[in-house]
Amino acid sequence: MARRTSLVVAFATLALGCGRTDLLWGIDSYASESTGDGDEATGDGDGDDEPTGDGDGDGDDDPTGDGDGDDPTGDGDGDDPTGDGDGDPIGDGDGDCSSMAVNLVPQQPPVIVLLDRGDHMAGNFAGPSRWEAIGLALFDPIQGVSWAWEDVRRLGLASFTSFGGDGGGACPVLEIVAPAALNAATMEASFLGQAPEQDNPLADALTAMIPLFAGEPGHLVLLTGRNPDTCATPNPQQGGAQAVLAAQDAFAAGIQTHLVAVGNLTGNYPQSLANAGAGMDGAPWLSPNNLAALATGLDGLLAGLGSCELGLGVAVADPSACVLELDGAALIPDDPNGWSQLASDRVQLNGAACAALDQGASVAMTCSCDAF
């Protein structure tokens, strides 16, 4: 059920008054205006076509009569809608405004399950092979998460491999099912036509995924079984740094990468990749060691991707000027259990905050006008 706050913007209006209001002032003014050059509508002696009578002689383009010709407020700044010259939308002259509550709307972003199809995916995974376990976790008629989530998530499937990198022809070799609702059957048909092949050029695959989202923020759920190689260097598997950079580029494009390790990922690589994919330090990643744990982990991951991503309805340029609260308590920005900005008009709750939102907690966001 969508949980949202209402958009509230309060503006202050300043009423100004000046000048004489007595009867003699009206008579004096009328007398002055009725004399003059004989054909001047206002009687100020500036010519015969000046509707405002201020003596600028422009006659046809200054609605306020102050001589600037095109300023709708009449103060001479030409483009300030409030007329105080500071460009401030509420007209108080300080370039600032009162805070506003931002309308938060749960999103259903596209989600692509990205599968490493290197030969190592044929390795044992507590009974079935890694590849077989992925197939069961995704498409088993009873516990397959694709069937469970296809009506509330726009799911897609992609896999990547190569045959000797650039020296073996096209690289990366991709199989793609574009994300859509009610897509599990199409995804399963694609998966059943594939098998583990040779290499796993992850950086090149991540780069190839970005255009599939067509500029829309979304998610990649990456299932991989070893440190990656690259199209340029298929052996040895030393493409971790390139993969981290590619995940950073994807995040900058609004696409988060969620790591699910179904094999032996070594060194600092998996944590670095998870951090790059989430745009923060200490990002969580999954490392299930059997089919049941894999299915449970994927189910929990998919559960959080929709309800915890919130559209703002407005572009926020400076998130530090905003406070996001869960049940009245402020959350920490860029924290594993706080919130993160995914794009100028989208935020996401992380970890414990996401879990609390799923349990019915209320969420609200307030920004100063410096944020926009």
Helix-strand blueprint:
Blueprint lengths: L22 H12 L65 E3 L2 E2 L3 E7 L13 H10 L5 H5 L4 E8 L11 E8 L3 H9 L9 H8 L8 E9 L13 H13 L2 E10 L4 H10 L12 H17 L1 E3 L10 E5 L2 E2 L8 E5 L2 E4 L1 H8 L4 E5 L5
Parallel strand pairs: 3-4, 3-6, 6-7
Antiparallel strand pairs: 1-13, 2-8, 4-5, 8-12, 9-10, 9-13, 11-12
Uncertain runs with pLDDT below 50, 5 residues or more? Answer: 1-95
Number of helical segments with 4 or more residues: 9
Distance between the termini: 28 Å
Q: Which strands sit side by side, in order, in the main sheet?
A: 5-4-3-6-7
CATH architecture of the largest domain: 3-Layer(aba) Sandwich
* CATH C-level of the largest domain: Alpha Beta
| Secondary structure: helix percent | 10-25%
Could you tell me the strand content as a percent range?
Answer: 15-25%
If you consult CATH, what is the topology of the largest domain?
A: Rossmann fold
Query: CATH H-level name of the largest domain... which superfamily?
Result: von Willebrand factor, type A domain
- The whole-number mean of residue pLDDT values reads 80
Q: Main sheet?
A: 5 strands, mixed
**What would you call the shape?**
globular
What string gives the helices and strands in order? Answer: HEEEHHEEHHEHEHHEEEEEHE
